[in-house]
Amino acid sequence: MEQLKTKDDEYVNSLKNQNDNIDFLIASMKFQFNQMRTDYSDQLNNIEKAFYDERSQILKNNEDEIRRLFEEHRKLEEHFQHKRAQDEENYSRQLEDLRSKDAND
């Protein structure tokens, strides 16, 4: 009978140890899950930051390119306006020369 009581006590202790081990395992799994969630959140934040930094740089480069193209367009327009004014002046002079030549003939 004493042996049965000892085996019962061993069985109860074994169940308590199993329960403690399961509680420890669950606590470890929760800790691991929380740690992974934190790590994944940090990684996602780093990815988002890199994305926004890259996006910001691309937007800045595009704005610089647009400014440069508008400036180039403005210079070309000024050049062609100046050339047109010179051409008009030359044509006007040629017309005046032709008129004065016709008037003299």
What would a concise description of this structure say?
The chain is mainly α and 105 residues long. It is built from one helix and no strands.
What do these coordinates show?
The protein is mainly α. 98% of the residues lie in helices and 0% in strands. It contains one helix and no strands. It has one helix spanning 2-104. The protein is rod-shaped, with a radius of gyration of 45 Å.
Which SSEs are present, and which pair or pack?
Layout (H helix, E strand, L loop, with lengths): L1 H103 L1
**Helix content, binned percent:** over 70%
Amount of beta strand: under 5%
Query: Which series of helices and strands comes N to C?
Result: H
Helical segment tally? 1
Main structural class: mainly alpha
Radius of gyration: 45 Å
Biggest sheet, in brief? Answer: none
Keywords:
1 helix; mainly alpha; 105 residues
